Amino acid sequence: MSSKVVAFASDHAGFELKALLLKDVEDWGYPTLDLGTDSLASVDYPDYGKAMADAIDQGRAWLGVLVCGSGIGISIAANRNPSVRAALCHNGTVARLSRLHNDANVIALGARLVGQEVARDCVKVFLETEFEGGRHAGRVAKLAVL
């Protein structure tokens, strides 16, 4: 797969927003990987956070988008893997800074907390922002060895 693959995963609460964002990202020209869930049927968010973490860790995806009701639980699950730096974002500024300063490789969104347009903006900014490096590089490197 291309190194620019964007992976998506959600629980049932994030399913509809995930589907919308996945289509947007494809329309923006990125290949995608849908890790589920595939319906509104109740599922456990840790399973999908782990699926995302595995995809990032194995190099099957360049960046990832996680969605659950609040974005909190699924980001905690993904961040259990040292290869993942999942950032819970609620606006474009936070999304930009998560990439710029923290080299976040996964954005987490709360479907019950952010609207569709805010979520779209967050994901677009996240995908378009590169890590600044410099003074931030050493700090980010420390995250992998905690």
Any overview of this molecule?
- This protein has 146 residues and is of the alpha/beta class.
- 44% of the residues lie in helices and 15% in strands.
- The protein contains six helices and five strands; from the N terminus they run E-H-E-H-E-H-E-H-E-H-H.
- The protein has helices at 15-27, 45-57, 72-78, 92-100, 116-128, 135-143, and strands spanning 6-10, 32-34, 63-68, 86-88, 106-110.
- Strand 4 (86-88), helix 4 and strand 5 (106-110) form a beta-alpha-beta unit.
- The radius of gyration is 14 Å and the shape is globular.
Element-by-element helix/strand order: EHEHEHEHEHH
C-alpha termini separation? 30 Å
Tell how many strands the DSSP assignment holds: 5
The strand order across the widest sheet is: 2-1-3-5-4
Count of helical regions: 6
Low-confidence stretches: none
State mean pLDDT (0 to 100 scale). 96
Report Rg.
14 Å
- Note the overall shape: globular
